[in-house]
Amino acid sequence: AQSVAQPEDQVNVAEGNPLTVKCTYSVSGNPYLFWYVQYPNRGLQFLLKYITGDNLVKGSYGFEAEFNKSQTSFHLKKPSALVSDSALYFCAVSDTTDSWGKLQFGAGTQVVVTP
Amino acid sequence: NAGVTQTPKFQVLKTGQSMTLQCAQDMNHNSMYWYRQDPGMGLRLIYYSASEGTTDKGEVPNGYNVSRLNKREFSLRLESAAPSQTSVYFCALTGGGITGELFFGEGSRLTVL
């Protein structure tokens, strides 16, 4: 069985400050980890993924995430947040490459960036 | 997402009524998925289809049926709607390979009274 925890319902940050959204996971095999973002009344958009290789993954819109196997974490980061980064962020995990779309999603973290 | 089209965008049903959510893609991807999104619960997989003519259950299939008659379309049917099925439904697809990226539709907001 696989699961994802996003411990914070909401993260508040001032524009220009660093942004971190936390994610921990549990899988029985190798983890394949994803971050998605959802703007109001829209579908989810892919940000980045970790499949294998370098633990630091860079994605869209200046976001990056670090895979930490010992802590089973995959935190999303952005060095300098923008007001336009305000959205709902989802971490997701799969333990199989047989079907990439069979993901276990976290509950989501609302990010609010204030000017 | 222009590649994934969901209809209808909004629907209100009475308990016991039936309806079908439609999803069509123009991205020529093999695998298609139906998720539901509920506050505080993230997204949960209802059904998926790895290819034309095949379907499999996801995490929360009860109360739903699906149909994948061709590569382009994947429909989700509620035979007898219940208030617990009030949700936002998303169709998504992926091309497989090593990309792993899911492409989502804009969602269908369903309310069951």
What does this protein look like?
- The complex is a heterodimer of chains A (about 120) and B (about 110).
- The model of chain A has no long low-confidence stretch (mean pLDDT about 95).
- Chain A has strands at about 5, 10-15, 20, 25, 30-40, 45-50, 55-60, 65-70, 75-80, 85-95, 105, 110-115.
- Chain A is mostly beta strands and about 120 residues long.
- In chain A, a hairpin with a 4-residue loop joins strand 8 (about 65-70) and strand 9.
- Chain B is mainly beta.
- Chain B is built from no helices and 11 strands.
- In chain B, the strands form 2 sheets. In chain B, strands 2, 4, 5, 6, 9, 10 and 11 form a 7-stranded mixed beta sheet that branches.
- In chain B, a hairpin with a 7-residue loop joins strand 7 and strand 8 (about 75-80).
- In chain B, about 35% of the residues are buried.
- The chains are: A mainly beta (about 120), B mainly beta (about 110).
- The interface of A and B includes residues 9, 41, 51 and 92 of A.
Q: Which ranges of chain A are low-confidence, i.e. pLDDT below 50, for 5 or more consecutive residues?
A: none
Strands of chain B, total number: 11
Our estimate of the beta-strand percent of chain A is over 45%
N- to C-terminal separation of chain A?
41 Å
Helix/strand/pairing category of chain A: mainly beta
Helix content of chain A: under 10%
Strand content of chain B: over 45%
What average pLDDT do the residues of chain A reach? 93
Mean pLDDT of chain B: 93
Radius of gyration of chain B: 13 Å
What is the quaternary state of this protein?
A: heterodimer
Radius of gyration of chain A: 13 Å
Q: H/E element string of chain A?
A: EEEEEEEEEEEE
Name the chain pair with the biggest interface and residue counts per chain.
Answer: A-B, 26 and 29 residues
Q: What is the string of SSEs of chain B from the N terminus onward?
A: EEEEEEEEEEE
Task: Give the overall shape of chain B, derived from the CA principal axes.
Answer: globular
Alpha-beta classification of chain B: mainly beta
Total number of β-strand segments of chain A? 12
Quick one: biggest sheet of chain B?
Answer: 7 strands, mixed
Low-confidence stretches of chain B: none
